[in-house]
Amino acid sequence: MGSRYPHSSGERSELADRVVRVNRVAKVVKGGRKFSFSALIVVGDMNGRVGAGIGKAREVTEAIRKGMEVAKRNMITVPMVGTTIPHEVRLKLGAARIMLKPAAPGTGVISGGAMRAVIETAGIKDILTKSHGTNNPINTVRATLAALQQLRTAQQVAELRGKEVEQIVGRRLANAYRRQEGVVTNGAEASTPVETK
Fold it and tell me: DSSP letter string over the chain?
């Protein structure tokens, strides 16, 4: 399936990046074969932002560099509730079918392969995942990013519907979210940790 290891970038050290797969490709021309490399890279700030990109070049290091540039341009923001995601999401993209499920604190990242690279670089600490269908890393990464883009917090849903959070999740859950939000705000960063289940 390819190598999966942290790769340090010199210019922006605050971004963590993973090489998910390096593939050698050949183009048949009149004089023989031309070999080049394609690299699938996942980049994230470990705090809710993640992106992926593919780079192609004659050298592996150049392919990785190009893939990192593409990934940095295509980063998305993932809404989070504490260390997990707000709600369960199931998605079918091409031949890839994936499921992401929130987990209790301390569960860890229950995931494998290309999905794990996306989830870890996004900064999600507790999650349950399952991938059906294709095991192609490119399609799996694309499907995972598309699923993460579909996530919405209860606050965002309330704003879209023009209602209060209490009307959507109930008073007890809304108070729990506010307490959790207060804890996070008093800490390092302010976020809107809201859960729908």
Answer: ----EEE--SS-TTSEEEEEEEEEEEEEETTEEEEEEEEEEEEE-SSSEEEEEEEEESSHHHHHHHHHHHHHHT-EE---BTTB-SS-EEEEETTEEEEEEE--TT--EE--HHHHHHHHHHT--SEEEEEEE---HHHHHHHHHHHHHT---HHHHHHHHT--HHHHH-HHHHHHHHHHHHHHHHSS---------
